[in-house]
Amino acid sequence: MSALNQTEKHVDNSYVAAGLNSAYEEFLSAHPEYAETALLDECRKTEYGRLDENRQIYLDYTGGGLYGVSQLRQHTALLEKNVLGNPHSANPSSLAMTDLVEETRRYVLQYFNTSSEKYTAVFTANASGALKLVGEAYPFASGGQYALTFDNHNSVNGIREFARSKGARVQYVPVGFPDLRIEQDSLDKVLDSADKSAKNLFAFPAQSNFSGVKHPLSWIEYAQKKGWDVLLDAAAFVPASRLDLSTLSPDFVCISFYKMFGYPTGIGMLLIRNSSYEKLERPWFAGGTVNFASVQANSHYLAGNEAAFEDGTINYLNIPAVKMGLQHLEKVGMELISRRVTDLTDWMLKELFALRHINGKPMVRIYGPVNMENRGGTITLNFYSPEEHLLDYRRIEELANVEGISLRTGCFCNPGAGETAEGLTPEDMQAAFKEGENISLPRFVQVIQHRGNKSAGAIRISVGLASNFTDVYRFLAFAAAFRNKSNLNIGKVTMDIANCRVIRDGS
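The chain above was modelled as a monomer; its predicted structure follows.
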């Protein structure tokens, strides 16, 4: 695999520098409240200085947050000072670790403005692990349903396999085009179909990781009154928005901590509403999840509360870093983060939407809302030539790499939103599945290209805590440089990605 020539610069950086100051003044004129977020610029210098030292533009906050250096130092100091052991025991090192784990558990509940009286907090390996716990333990049965919106993450989509295996009906609520929002009539049609005497589960993301759409959290109570338990995927929502569980009562909530504050990875959480806890039926047990188990008696008793769901040994040494990460967010201020994300995203949307080729044709197609009404800091898009031909998003990612811009391409594990946004039909998808189990992303791209000028993927940019105006300005300068360009002009992609896992061979 040949590396992209590092001298192949896509953007004239001298031009970028010349226009930055005037663009910033124009931006402040339109968003005067942005000046109130100046504390985040100081935070960037002290906590995230490596971005500017390495000339990196990080625009993948929906993929993962960035950690502050103080988080690492605080956690390292804790590990250096204490002797900490596996919490599944009563020796001094185990008890010390248990105290730290339980202290963190309480702090998470406090952060989301609730307590153990209302929710059981279960540490998991990630948000997907939290969702799997719900899927395998929810009492799906014939007569019951699993309903979910089109724009759910694949880890939520995957629960349908548990539902189907137990005879439950699976229904999707479609998203509308072009804003990729849910229409109330479509939602009501599905929710009104519930048999209230059966077990029904409705799942939706608080914020789509594809389009940035923020769905109404009022749906939680609305669905519950119609006979549904509600699973809220909060992973993309909580990095820049406050989730207040004193006013909301979803039955299940999944959270990813690294998406909130970057470190540690490998820890997520499932919050189970205590009034819904008894509905779950664990299909198996593991180390730490039982109070008593016997081989000869061929029986077991599950532990109570969160212990019944924390399979095996939890990631105990890293769990205290979760509290430190939450404290880091609180010190910075969620209101400031949200304000900055909103202003930067609003400006990018307007500037991207205004980009035109010399013949007047739009350069960019944005998938989802083009304004900030009920949306977050995620923008998904594709570039088009003056002849309205799709530019290869994989090649654009390669060119972004040269500029030190970290963005994300593909379908973002959100096939429903992507299929709708890109105009893919059931027939298109069936054509792909006819390729068999060896279907890969490059092959899928070929299949779709042969079926018309459609995309099998897109480009996603997202801002967060450490983002600043210079980041988004440099990205927009990068985007503007595709004016009047075709696939022939930008060159061929040099690296194909078979799936979401990219492995470099070192060549």
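The domain at 13-60+333-422+457-490 is CATH 3.90.1150.10 (Aspartate Aminotransferase, domain 1).
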